[in-house]
Amino acid sequence: MNNNKGRKEVQPSFLHLPERKKVLVTFNDRNQPIGENADVFSSFLGIVSREMVPITLSDWR
């Protein structure tokens, strides 16, 4: 079954920011990003972690 039908690759929203622009990210009492820039911050962290953290485990069980 092909679940990719009609899916498009979307660029993360932080790639559309001007170079060196700082984004204010608000955190709740559990240190989770909240507010309008939470998704920008989360996307950025996901990309950085995929690029910087090697996956060395072949099985997560």
What does this structure look like?
By secondary structure, this protein is of the alpha+beta class. It has one helix and two strands; from the N terminus they run E-E-H. 0% of the residues are buried. The chain has a two-stranded antiparallel sheet. Strand 1 and strand 2 form a beta hairpin. The chain has one helix at 38-52; strands at residues 26-27, 33-34. The protein has a domain at 13-52.
Topology:
Blueprint lengths: L25 E2 L5 E2 L3 H15 L9
Antiparallel strand pairs: 1-2
Sum up the structure in keywords.
2 strands, 61 residues, two-stranded antiparallel sheet, 25% helix, extended, alpha+beta
Secondary structure: helix percent: 10-25%
> How many helices does DSSP assign?
1
Into which percentage range does the β-strand content fall? 5-15%
Cα-to-Cα separation, first versus last residue: 25 Å
- Radius of gyration based on Cα positions: 16 Å
Largest sheet: 2 strands, antiparallel
Tell me how many strands there are: 2
Q: What's this model, at a glance?
A:
The chain is of the alpha+beta class. The protein has 1 helix and 2 strands. The protein has a domain at 13-52.
